[in-house]
Write a structure and sequence with these properties.
The chain is α+β, with helices and mostly antiparallel strands. It has three domains: about 90 residues, Butyryl-Coa Dehydrogenase, subunit A, domain 1 (Orthogonal Bundle), CATH 1.10.540; about 110 residues, Butyryl-CoA Dehydrogenase, subunit A, domain 2; about 130 residues, Butyryl-CoA Dehydrogenase, subunit A, domain 3 (Up-down Bundle). About 45% of the residues lie in helices and about 15% in strands. Helix 4 runs parallel beside helix 8. The longest helix has 27 residues. The protein is globular and about 70 Å long.
């Protein structure tokens, strides 16, 4: 059945249930301190974010797509989309399970042993562990298959040596899921193995990286003779590339990003309408046209998200369509950051919300797959153009 922009009767009832849950619990954030909302809080162990996560867990919504036998809610793609949309509209945290729910959990459900599922899935749902992703390396970012971190089999262990970089949240993480090269003579997409690494293992060193925005969300991680038990391998040796590209039914429509940029615009418009603000339409009337363009862009981003979820709801797998969402939303994020600087004028040169947002937006078209990678996918898989 085709998906329309209007909810069906059952979808409307579900949306009402989600809205009621949000209204009943969003007061958790009313008196949250700055520390509770800081970087540590975003990883689910502090203050208001943890309280909110516990409430979501009580409803079984931490891992909405997981099968119920593994502690999920077994929700359909449209139900997940509605929940994420309502969370985004209300400004409450949506991905409270982090990488554990989004990435490693589905991978273990698909490829893990029963012992691995028993050890990790329940702890992920209860928020007892934080996971980070060990993929990118100094010489292997967009071309991930060029990674060189080595894992050499030694009895019942692998001995790990190498370096990962841009590792989000590694300073908070208990475990890392990672790719390491176990056969250096194999073609680069082969000879890679998927491992689970305890971040407290001897030989693991984490060094935070300070971004232009003076934040430390990224890290570089070094491995020096780190011993990883073979039982922590997911899937077969030298087949880790195929395990690492596993994606199950999790949110890929970027609806949170589409709504987020619109809410940022709404905030800027309120700022611009304030007579007392140094950044207002009274000083810069010409920006009305720029605001209009960005508001139209925000609606386009939302429609691209609806296209992706419509495909998922009809049993199709979005490919270049997801790349379109990612490319458009990330570039729109940068356009809005630039608009904020235009609005504040010379005041934007002072270290404030506008300037912080501007430098943070630089990474939008790099993180999660560069714009160049997205354009390549759209060209080859969407338009059928030959590879260069």
């Amino acid at each position: 059945m085709p998906i329309t922009l209007a909810d069906s009767e059952s979808e409307l009832e579900w949306r009402k249930e989600v809205r009621q849950f949000i209204n009943d619990n969003k007061g958790i954030f009313a008196n949250a301190s700055a520390d509770e909302g800081g970087e540590g809080g975003l990883f689910g162990r502090m203050g208001a974010v943890k309280k909110w996560r516990d409430k979501v867990a009580e409803k079984g919504w931490v891992a909405p797509a997981w099968p119920t036998k593994y502690g999920g809610a077994d929700l359909g793609v449209k139900e997940q989309f509605i929940m994420n949309e309502e969370f985004a509209e209300s400004g409450v945290p949506s991905n409270v399970g982090g990488f554990g729910v989004m990435m490693i959990g589905p991978t273990l459900i698909e490829h893990g042993t029963e012992d691995q599922k028993e050890e990790h899935l329940g702890r992920i749902l209860r928020g007892e562990v934080i996971w980070c992703q060990g993929y990118s390396e100094p010489g292997a970012g967009s071309d991930l298959a060029s990674l060189q971190t080595r894992a050499v089999r030694d009895g019942d262990d692998y001995v790990l040596n190498g370096q990962k970089i841009w590792t989000t949240g590694a300073q908070y993480a208990d475990w890392m899921y990672m790719l390491a090269r176990t056969d250096p003579d194999a073609p680069k997409h082969r000879g890679i193995t998927y491992l689970l690494v305890d971040m407290k293992s001897p030989g693991v060193t984490v060094r935070p990286l300070t971004t232009m925005a003076n934040m430390q969300s990224f890290n570089e991680v070094f491995f020096e003779d780190v011993r990883v038990p073979v039982k922590n391998r997911v899937g077969d040796e030298n087949r880790g590339w195929y395990v690492g590209t596993t994606t199950l039914d999790f949110e890929r429509s970027s609806i949170g990003s589409a709504i987020g940029v619109r809410k940022t615009l709404d905030s800027l418009i309120r700022q611009a309408k304030s007579e007392k603000s140094p950044a207002s339409f009274d000083q810069r009337r010409s920006l009305r046209h720029e605001f209009t363009d960005r508001l139209i862009d925000a609606e386009v981003a939302k429609m691209l998200s609806y296209r992706v979820i419509s495909m998922q709801a009809n049993g199709k797998i979005p490919n270049h369509e997801s790349s379109m969402c990612k490319l458009f939303s990330s570039e729109l994020n940068q356009k809005i950051a630039l608009l904020s600087m235009h609005l504040f004028g010379m005041h934007g040169l002072v270290w404030n919300r506008a300037s912080t947002g501007y430098v943070q937006a630089v990474s939008s078209t790099i993180a999660g797959g560069t714009s160049e990678i997205q354009k390549g996918i759209m060209a080859t898989r969407g338009l059928g153009l030959p590879r260069g």
